[in-house]
Amino acid sequence: MEKVRRSFTVSLDLEKAYDNRALREEPWYFWVEGSTPEDEAPEEGASFTFMVPKKEISMVPDMGKWKRSQAYADYIGFILTLNEGVKGKKLTCEYKVSETVEKLMDLLGTLDRWINETPPVDQPSRFGNKAYRTWFAKLDQEAEALVSVVLPADKRAAAPEIAVYLKESVGNSTRIDYGTGHEAAFAAFLCCLCKVGALRVDDQLAIVFKVFNRYLEVMRKLQKTYRMEPAGSQGVWGLDDFQFLPFIWGSSQFIDHPTLEPRHFVDERVVNEHHQDYMFLECIKFINEMKTGPFAEHSNQLWNISAVPSWSKVNQGLIRMYKAECLEKFPVIQHFKFGSLLSIQPAKP
């Protein structure tokens, strides 16, 4: 088994990927280091004219417009800011839980409860249980109301715009599938809540460790209950059938860990012992539950990543891989929607 493991050349050499110069992004402008919660709220004069987001990337040549857009700059800045915020911290560490975070947890709890109320139906096909469409129809109908409760009273007008990202984040009701594009929509949903001032700079840890982690629990329940197909899966050559961001943020949690190295995450004993503290290991645990056979065969990319010597190299390499395999892929980005908060207009210089 060892002989198939020790190179990672399928899509990216993680050993060479640790190049900070290639990863420099402008800091996300609402979350300037050292700011107070009052500082990073949008200025009074900078009010948005909210709009229902729509698709803008209809052909491969449009990808340049996406990469130059304010939406791209805001989205990648948001991901990297959170990546920095969780560095070296456990899921079980202490952090502030704001009223908005509590409301988001209630929202996700509602989605979870609806799964319980919508059991799978008997059907000939093993995958893509049609009861998912009943569950999704409930969200489609209630999304704006759910989002309105989360927003400050003076930002309720943003609900129709932000609710679109929530609806996009749970999978596709026609194909009954889920993939990294849907995961990106949930990150976009959280990014929008930050841009309107509902979430603040001191919510960073709670955004990842509490809200996003709960979102993952609900998505895993959806995937298992309704046997959802992976959207655009690369099979054994993909990182994971469904998720990507928890591997990025999860690897950041491990940076400078005194004992756990990348080689340890393929050890089931280590996974079972530490998964409650580390998002990365929660992902591995879910893979082990869902797939059978040797890990190196069903999750070859992750197996190869376990050979990288340090978590910092894994983390930077995964960021590069995320850009290349998700954010720069037309089949993913053609479904992304743009509004006033995540704008297709060129990024400000």
TrEMBL record:
Stretch forming the signal peptide: none
Subcellular localization(s) per the UniProt record: Cytoplasm; Nucleus
GO cellular component: cytoplasm; nucleus; protein phosphatase type 2A complex
SUPFAM superfamilies: PTPA-like
Keywords: Acetylation, ATP-binding, Cytoplasm, Isomerase, Magnesium, Metal-binding, Nucleotide-binding, Nucleus, Rotamase
Catalyzed reactions per annotation: [protein]-peptidylproline (omega=180) = [protein]-peptidylproline (omega=0)
GO MF annotations in UniProt: ATP binding; metal ion binding; peptidyl-prolyl cis-trans isomerase activity; protein tyrosine phosphatase activator activity
Record EC number: 5.2.1.8
One Pfam family linked to the record: PTPA
GO biological process: mitotic spindle organization
Assigned protein family: Belongs to the PTPA-type PPIase family.
Summary of the function given for this chain in its UniProt record: PPIases accelerate the folding of proteins. It catalyzes the cis-trans isomerization of proline imidic peptide bonds in oligopeptides. Acts as a regulatory subunit for serine/threonine-protein phosphatase 2A (PP2A). Modulates PP2A activity or substrate specificity, probably by inducing a conformational change in the catalytic subunit, a proposed direct target of the PPIase. Can reactivate inactive phosphatase PP2A-phosphatase methylesterase complexes (PP2A(i)) in presence of ATP and Mg(2+).
PANTHER family xref list: SERINE/THREONINE-PROTEIN PHOSPHATASE 2A REGULATORY SUBUNIT B (PTHR10012), SERINE_THREONINE-PROTEIN PHOSPHATASE 2A ACTIVATOR (PTHR10012:SF0)
Name under which the protein is recorded: Serine/threonine-protein phosphatase 2A activator
Lineage of origin: Eukaryota, Metazoa, Chordata, Craniata, Vertebrata
